[in-house]
Amino acid sequence: MSGNKSRIHIFDTTLRDGEQSPGASIKPEQKIILARQLEKLGIDVIEPGFPVSSSGEFAAVQQISRELQQTEIVGFARAVRGDIDAAVKATQDAARRRLHLFISSSDIHLNFQLRKTRDEVIAIARQMVAYGKQFVDEIEFSPMDSTRSGMEFVIELVEAVISEGATIINLPDTLGYALPEEYGELFRTVRRQARGGDKVKYSAHCHNDLGMAVANSIAAIRAGATQVEVTVNGIGERAGNCSLEELVMAIQTRSDALQAETGINVEEVYNTSRLVSRTMNFPLAYNKPIVGRNAFQHESGIHQDGLLKNRNTYEIMDPEAMGIPRSMIILGKHSGRHAIKDRAASYGAELTAEQLEAVYEQFKVLADEQKIVTDDQLMRLIGELSSEHEEPYMLTELQVLSGTQRARMASVTIREREGRGERTYSAIGTGPIEAVINCIRQAIPAAAEFEDLELHSLSTGEDAKGEAVVTIIHCGQRYRGTSIHNDVILAVAEAYIGACNQAVMSAGRNEERKKAETAG
């Protein structure tokens, strides 16, 4: 810890609360993979599931407890003896573990769900904390819906569980109802007024129903909470939970103002986000802070000009430090000549003033039609002006045969710049995209590892256009190609070839640089 900054422990509940997102179920074997990545990210505490809910869930929590020896593991349980037994047994092999007990505390929950009185709830909480304390030293207790429960009852309930051995008090904003000043005051008051409240640790668990989960979590930190419960990409029930990446980067970016820090390895933020998104089949909103596609991309000519001169003009964080591929300039109808010239130069195409003006005029026509101009489209415009800048490979023909009873078949014709003309390749695959990719791999030596594919609909109706974004890895470097077309299979093929062209041209520039250094 540096200076007097408070160390905020990050409690990740992606595998428990996050999985409760409608449609986000994770297979037990996938939980193990995600848990390993969370440990790599530097998560302090992982809540890997709800052991009593199913045998598969129990087995996953058990395996994670055995394998992850650097991270504290949480056994999640209702204030019910059977839940506690399952949680204790599932986590018994963890190097460090805790039991997390919860029971509803708001009148609306007590009257309509639990059908218990406040006195009955206090008695149950006491009994179950005391029972759990026989097995574990660390017990976290959550009065569910605490922000709608009334301060006096929350204090009474917290006092009861502290007296029975609870060591961490979590005050969840279960419905995302609280305002930041209200949530902060809840922590300050409980810490100050509950007997024994100054002897335990405090945790925040915020939902995002009103879009204030991160703001409320920061309010809790200011009020003395030293742990925040989060999910990757902010997934979770309804509108989700406090977003891990948003909270961590808010703390890091405004560390001096908050006097706080975390132990998160921010270089793994993007990889973790992508893994969770792919595993759960949950796409990210374009404007999602930190990890959304547009989070570090700029189309405005004024912004682009400033960024090219100094990144700090329009960015408060460094995306590359979080493992996010650098692609801050988006070429669209608001882009200026500086951005086009810079993008062309990144591909080794140095444009004269006359060439730049000619490209810019054609670029504006294309941008008005489809808003965004992809890199391969720009290079095609440049190639029309000079064969010197023609792309190494170009798709000239594609055919795909699909059916319900057979493997998909594809053939592609590709023109090579190096004077070898056009060649046609055929292949099969379990799907049309796989068949097409198998064809292209025969043609292009740089068609290395196909890492990721994103497909986006850019409009509606029968004439809708789809955008394909393909990422490949070649010689340890990532390259991304994009394409827009009414035919999504064709868009994928063009995007894949665009990424391969980048890899080929990058290798060529590196070779030229080495030759120049040797000659020098």
TrEMBL record:
<dbReference type="InterPro" id="IPR036230">
    <property type="entry name" value="LeuA_allosteric_dom_sf"/>
</dbReference>
<dbReference type="Pfam" id="PF00682">
    <property type="entry name" value="HMGL-like"/>
</dbReference>
<dbReference type="InterPro" id="IPR013709">
    <property type="entry name" value="2-isopropylmalate_synth_dimer"/>
</dbReference>
<dbReference type="GO" id="GO:0009098">
    <property type="term" value="P:L-leucine biosynthetic process"/>
</dbReference>
<keyword id="KW-0100">Branched-chain amino acid biosynthesis</keyword>
<dbReference type="InterPro" id="IPR054691">
    <property type="entry name" value="LeuA/HCS_post-cat"/>
</dbReference>
<dbReference type="InterPro" id="IPR000891">
    <property type="entry name" value="PYR_CT"/>
</dbReference>
<keyword id="KW-0479">Metal-binding</keyword>
<comment type="pathway">
    <text>Amino-acid biosynthesis; L-leucine biosynthesis; L-leucine from 3-methyl-2-oxobutanoate: step 1/4.</text>
</comment>
<dbReference type="InterPro" id="IPR050073">
    <property type="entry name" value="2-IPM_HCS-like"/>
</dbReference>
<feature type="region of interest" description="Disordered">
    <location>
        <begin position="1"/>
        <end position="24"/>
    </location>
</feature>
<keyword id="KW-0808">Transferase</keyword>
<keyword id="KW-0464">Manganese</keyword>
<dbReference type="GO" id="GO:0046872">
    <property type="term" value="F:metal ion binding"/>
</dbReference>
<keyword id="KW-0432">Leucine biosynthesis</keyword>
<dbReference type="Pfam" id="PF08502">
    <property type="entry name" value="LeuA_dimer"/>
</dbReference>
<dbReference type="Pfam" id="PF22617">
    <property type="entry name" value="HCS_D2"/>
</dbReference>
<dbReference type="InterPro" id="IPR005671">
    <property type="entry name" value="LeuA_bact_synth"/>
</dbReference>
<dbReference type="InterPro" id="IPR002034">
    <property type="entry name" value="AIPM/Hcit_synth_CS"/>
</dbReference>
<dbReference type="InterPro" id="IPR013785">
    <property type="entry name" value="Aldolase_TIM"/>
</dbReference>
<keyword id="KW-0028">Amino-acid biosynthesis</keyword>
<comment type="similarity">
    <text>Belongs to the alpha-IPM synthase/homocitrate synthase family. LeuA type 1 subfamily.</text>
</comment>
<protein>
    <recommendedName>
        <fullName>2-isopropylmalate synthase</fullName>
        <ecNumber>2.3.3.13</ecNumber>
    </recommendedName>
</protein>
<dbReference type="GO" id="GO:0003852">
    <property type="term" value="F:2-isopropylmalate synthase activity"/>
</dbReference>
<feature type="domain" description="Pyruvate carboxyltransferase">
    <location>
        <begin position="8"/>
        <end position="270"/>
    </location>
</feature>
